Structures are given as C-alpha cells and as structure tokens.
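Try this one yourself first.
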C-alpha cells in the first residue's frame, strides 16, 4: 500500500548543547577520495535502448572512506544535501547549521517554508529526522495527468502527535564520527532513513558513486568508453574477491537499523525489543556476514521472507553478478502463513476460472443472480491510470484501467439494470494496491458521500484521520449523485488472500457501517510498504511504521487492521462462486 503523507513541524533549532560531560565521537580513521557521480535513475529497466554514460555523469564529489575498509563510505550532512538536492523540485534550498559534533540540514521549498530536516549528533551517535521529503521530490509519473487524485477530495486532521522528530541510535560497528572539524556518518544509513522515502539510493565502488531509484537500474545496460556495461558488472570487477567482511557488516547494520527502527510489525513478528537478539536466536546474525555467499544469501531471505512472514516484506533483488550471491540453494523465501495464503489463492483462482468458463464471464463482468436481485462485482487490485486524460477528457481506456472509475461505472450500470437490491464486492483474491484508489471507492458505499479512515505514524506517534469524498460523475460536486448507499445494501466477500488494500477495504467498510462481511476473515497487511537498500546493492521491501486502521474517538485509541475484519456471514470456499447460494444466505 502506498500512503498519504503527513506534514509535521520541522524544528529549526540545534539538537542540544555541549557540556563538560558530553561524550566524544568514536574515532573512525577516514581518508578522502574523489569519486565520479553517475545518475542511473534515467535508466528504465524496461527500456531496451542502451544509453551513453555521458548522459548519466553528474560530475565529481569528495567522499570519505574508512582507511582499512575502503568500501565503507562516509558523508557529512552538507555532502548528503548536495547529493540529493538535484532530486527535489525547482526552487528547493537547504541551510546547514553546524556546531561541534552536531549538525543539521534543513530543506525549504520555493516559498521558503521548511519541510524536511536531518540532524546528526556525532557525540551521542544519533540521527534525527523531521518533516516529509517525499512530496517535494521530482517524480517520473506526472500525477497531474493521472487518475490518482481525479475526483478525490480528502480532509485530514492530526488527532494527536507526541513528537515531531524521530530519533535513531546508530550502530557502533561503523558509527558517526568527527573528522577534521566536521561530523560524518555512513552514507548507507542515510539511504536507509532518508533516501528510501525519496527513492534515492547509492552504490559505491572504485568506478564511482551510482545513484539509483529502482533495483532494476543496477542491471540496465549503458555504454561507457565504447563498452556495454551495467553498474552491477562494474561493482563485480571492482571487487573480484567478492564481498568484503566490512561491507557484509555494513549490510547487517542496515538490516538491524530497519528492524529496530522502521519495521512496523516488530513486536508482532519478532517478539524482541532488539533485532540483534532476534537474529542471534534465528542463527542468522553470523550468517549475514558469512564468507560463504550461499549462507549469506539464505540468511537474507530468511530474515525478510520466511521469519517475518508478513507478505509485505521480502527481498526484491540480489546483485546476481557481484559477490557470488547468485547461488540458488532452494531457499524457502516465505514463511508458513504466506505459503498457506498462496495455496488458498491458487485454489480460489482455479475455482473462479472454472466458474468464468462455465458461465462465459470475465473478471470485469457484472454477474447477476437468477432472481436479478443480487449483483456481483469482482476486482483483484486497486489500480489507477497513469495517463487518464487526452485534451482534458478522461479516456475510455482510463475508465476501464482505473479501478475506482470502473466500479463507479459498474454501479451506475447496475442501477440502470433495475431490480437489484444487493451488491456483493468479491475481493477474495485481491492482494492490494494504491491507497488513493481505495479512498475513492469507500465513499461510493455511503449515503452522504463521506468515509472515514485513520493512520498511525509510529515514528512520531501521530494519528491522522481523514474524511474522503468521491466525485464519480466528475461534475465538480461531491454529492449524493456520486454514491449508492441509498440504492443498494452492500456485502463484501473476503478470504485470507484479501490482503493490504484488499484487507483495508472490507475492514474500513465495516467500521464505517457501509457493508456486511461474507466468507472468512480477511488477511491483514495493515502497514504501508517501504523499500530499503543495502550498500552492496541488494534491495528489499518491508512493512513500514505507517499503519492503516480506525480511530475510536470515544476511547481515544487507534486500532490497526492487521487482524482483518470479522465475518457476518460465514461461507465455505467451495461456495464462493455460487451466486444464488450466496444470495440465499444474505
């Protein structure tokens, strides 16, 4: 699930004050290297053309590397600000405030308003982050031309926020340090905490510093000095003996940083306050730094797939050429819950395919019961159309591609069909999608064109409620003409496969009082998805600290939807596509 973003107050003060008892930074011996910067973000993994590297060169920068581990890169906050500044919208500036071991960099938009801050205290080895960078980052997708926000109106309110700054303790293996009068920290840590939100990551080798957004860009071909290369191959050439112990240790540090600070289901999935103790219990802590690439890769898959077992979390890509991590020892990449969910999905998909074939139906078709009083709408994801308009007019293709527009048109068609009293949404094999699309579908089930959702941003302990409305007929008015709560009684058919947005839809429809639940309890997935990268180029995704759910105003408590929604009308899987039988139970 993608999530809406919260603007919080950005502190402009320094982090603290020096005292006689203030600790000294751990001394890390650094040396300066001059590195070329290459921007891979222009390389699309689905682009068959090979690009000249001269198009990718962004100049040079001075970096600091550890003298006895030259693949560990350190940057100052000013250096990092210079690296990421090109990714912000035009007019964004930054201000550096440095005093002793402390430094902060504050980014301001074109109007001079602070929107994002990163602070470093090298004495206490802590990183501080406030605000939101994502909304001011340049995007490849022109959302103004897409259907993502088309017809959606959202009113948000921060119910409570106990702090406006997140604080992170950094590992001691390669800690922050104070070098030649400036505070530094590993670039990999900033990629974990800051770069992930902006989709800006860095891969360093002797060939240069590569900036990328998607894992596929590391394998995309381009030309350098009349030779076809990839960043991955260049990395393999720079490290012919495989991954160094220092780089493996940095990888492990980044993994523990995510698990300790950014993984949204830690208490539920690990039961440990500290990730190190959990990894040691699993036996993966040492294996993550093994010199055997098979053990190292297996440990990576174990941590993010089998042991966390939440279906939002997993390894996205390996550097298959570099470091020998292309070994395939038959890893179990998912845990028992995920494997069971996939088995249910396969069985339901097979039964549904047979039902469609027998009844000459497609997924997007409306199915009516024999009596004509029940209509069934099926959809398997929450999707928006990237190119929705031509000359200001929404295209027919967009109306079919965008899930919300298609469902609106289907409800209009059902209403015109006549005689229908009940509508069943079948999300039994729906694995999720984009939250903005969900926000538009929910109010369609209401009577007053209004639906309520809530989010909890755990890192700043903020609960945000939002009231959403949808202008289905795109007449500029959000009214009862756009919704169908007075026309039909709604039901939602769920299974354990109904995950992420496929779980949030029935959960929020039930909490808002819009629909009754049929089938089995839905499958969870309350956290939005975040992505991370290791300094060696492996990429992963995980359940973030943004939780979707419901705010109980009477009790003043937020509750997530990880446990799914309760069932009003139980139904066996064997009967999921027997429309007349379902009608008899409603």
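Now uncover the answer:
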């Amino acid at each position: 699930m993608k999530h809406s973003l919260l603007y919080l107050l950005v502190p402009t003060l320094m982090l603290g004050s020096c005292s006689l008892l203030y600790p000294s930074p751990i001394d890390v011996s650094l040396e300066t290297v001059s590195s070329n910067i290459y921007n891979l973000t222009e390389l699309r993994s689905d682009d068959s053309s090979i690009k000249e590297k001269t198009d990718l060169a962004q100049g040079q920068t001075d970096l600091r590397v550890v003298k006895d581990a030259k693949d560990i890169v350190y940057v100052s906050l000013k250096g990092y600000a210079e690296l990421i500044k090109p990714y912000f919208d035009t007019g964004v500036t930054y201000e550096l405030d440095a005093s002793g071991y402390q430094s902060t960099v504050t980014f301001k938009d074109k109007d001079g308003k602070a929107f994002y801050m990163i602070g470093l205290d090298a004495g206490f080895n802590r990183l501080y982050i406030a605000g939101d960078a994502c909304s001011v980052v340049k995007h490849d997708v022109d959302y103004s031309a897409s259907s993502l926000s088309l017809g959606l109106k959202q009113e948000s309110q921060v119910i409570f926020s106990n702090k406006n700054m997140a604080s992170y303790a950094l590992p001691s293996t390669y800690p922050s340090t104070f070098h030649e009068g400036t505070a530094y920290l590993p670039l990999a840590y900033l990629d974990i905490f800051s770069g992930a939100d902006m989709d800006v990551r860095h891969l360093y080798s002797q060939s240069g510093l590569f900036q990328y957004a998607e894992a596929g860009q590391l394998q995309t071909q381009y030309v350098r000095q009349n030779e076809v290369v990839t960043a991955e191959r260049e990395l393999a050439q720079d490290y012919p003996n495989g991954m160094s112990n220092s780089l493996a240790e940095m990888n492990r540090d980044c993994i523990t940083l995510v698990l300790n600070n950014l993984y949204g289901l830690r208490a539920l999935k690990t039961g440990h306050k500290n990730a190190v103790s959990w990894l040691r219990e699993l036996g993966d802590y040492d294996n993550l730094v093994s010199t055997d690439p098979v053990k190292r890769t297996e440990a990576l898959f174990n941590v993010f797939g089998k042991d966390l077992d939440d279906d939002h979390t997993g390894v996205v890509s390996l550097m298959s050429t570099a470091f020998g991590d292309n070994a395939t020892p038959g890893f179990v990449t998912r845990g028992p819950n995920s494997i069971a969910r996939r088995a249910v999905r396969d069985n339901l998909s097979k039964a549904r395919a047979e039902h469609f074939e027998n009844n000459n139906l497609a997924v997007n078709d409306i199915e009516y019961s024999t009596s004509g009083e029940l209509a069934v709408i099926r959809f398997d994801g929450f999707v928006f159309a990237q190119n929705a308009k031509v000359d200001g007019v929404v295209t027919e293709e967009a109306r079919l591609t965008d899930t919300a527009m298609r469902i609106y048109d289907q409800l209009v068609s059902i209403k015109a069909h006549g005689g229908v009293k009940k509508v069943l949404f079948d999300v039994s094999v729906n694995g999720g999608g984009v939250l903005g699309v969900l926000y538009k579908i929910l109010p369609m089930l209401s009577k007053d064109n209004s639906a309520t959702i809530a989010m909890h941003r755990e890192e700043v302990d903020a609960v945000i409620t939002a009231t959403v409305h949808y202008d289905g007929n795109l007449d500029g008015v959000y009214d009862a003409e756009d919704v169908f709560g007075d026309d039909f009684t709604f039901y939602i058919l769920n299974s354990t496969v109904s995950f992420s947005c496929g779980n949030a839809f029935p959960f929020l429809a039930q909490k808002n009082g819009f629909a009754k639940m049929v089938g089995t309890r839905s499958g969870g997935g309350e956290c939005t998805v975040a992505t991370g990268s290791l300094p060696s180029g492996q990429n992963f995704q995980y359940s973030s600290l943004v939780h979707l759910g419901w705010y109980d105003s009477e009790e003043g408590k937020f509750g997530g939807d990880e446990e799914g929604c309760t069932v009003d009308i139980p139904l066996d899987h064997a009967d999921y596509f027997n429309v007349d039988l379902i009608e008899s139970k409603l």
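Discussion: The longest strand covers residues 539-552. The two ends are 31 Å apart (CA to CA).
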